[in-house]
Structures are given as C-alpha cells and as structure tokens.
Specification:
By secondary structure, this protein is mainly beta. It contains two helices and 13 strands. The strands form four sheets. The chain has a four-stranded antiparallel β-sheet. Strand 7 and strand 8 form a beta hairpin.
C-alpha cells in the first residue's frame, strides 16, 4: 500500500490562496515544518513518510516514530472557499445533501490517502447515499470546489 498525498495537495489547492504547511510531529517531541511551496511531493513507502523537496533533497521518517501530521491553514482555506461558494452540503442519516447544485454535476469523494472512494453524478440537489463509506475523513470535490468532511 503506497498512498500518495500529493493528489490531495492538488485537490485542495483548487481555488485556495492561503499559505499552507505540513507539520510533522515525532514521538520524541521533535518538530518538522514544510511549506507547500518548497515541497515537490511526499509519499508513504516502506513504512516511512518520505518528504521530497524542490531543491532535490529529501527527508524520511519511520511511521512508527510519527506522533501526528497536520496541515496548517488548509481548514481555514476550505472554510473560506465554502463561504465564498454557492455550493454547500450537509450529512444527515447516511446521505450527503448538497445545496446549489442545479445541473448534472460530477461528484468525487476521496479518502484521506487520496484514493477515490465514491464517484457519482448529482442532479437538482438530490442527496447522495454515503453510508457505505467507512468511518474517517474524506475530501469531496463538487464542480472543482473542495470540501472536507468526517464520517
């Protein structure tokens, strides 16, 4: 299993101007901060988090030594994007209800590791059944606008 989070970066960067950073906290208390502008990509390979920078250097962290990984400013950027957008959504009783979708619109839901979990076409604010998705954090792309939700 080699999930690549670079795909998530592409999805989330659509329409967002906030400065974004990846913060890696190790179990030892050591902290590493990377601005997206200097990162080429990062991936999970051979039980390591590999950070590849644009200057052709890289750093590797064993997954067992990582306490947490956070994405600074992304939530704020998503919140601003949702506030400026004509599309909104809510989740009730296993259904994703979208508001502002008036034409046939492609919807893609990505898992936190960047894999496509669900693709569908929405039409005229119809709900989308998502109860079959496992519990977790997902990224929703509607008309090129990214949203984050937890299930």
């Amino acid at each position: 299993m080699k999930p690549i989070l670079f795909l998530i970066f592409i999805i989330l960067s659509t329409g967002m101007n906030a400065q974004r950073k990846v913060h890696v906290s190790l179990n030892t208390g050591e902290e590493h901060l990377y601005q997206f502008e200097v990162m080429q990509r990062f991936s999970f390979e051979n039980a390591n988090l590999n950070v590849h920078l644009k200057d052709q250097t890289s750093e590797s962290f064993p997954l067992e030594n990582i306490h947490k990984i956070t994405f600074s400013s992304i939530e704020d950027a998503i919140r601003k994007d949702k506030a400026n957008s004509e599309i909104s959504f809510s989740i009730k009783h296993g259904y994703l209800h979208s508001l502002g979708v008036t034409d046939m619109t492609s919807v893609t839901i990505y898992s936190i590791d960047g894999r496509v979990s669900l693709q569908s076409i929405l039409c005229d604010d119809q709900p989308l059944y998502i109860d079959q998705l496992p519990t977790g954090i997902f990224f929703l792309n509607i008309q090129g606008k990214p949203f984050k939700f937890a299930r």
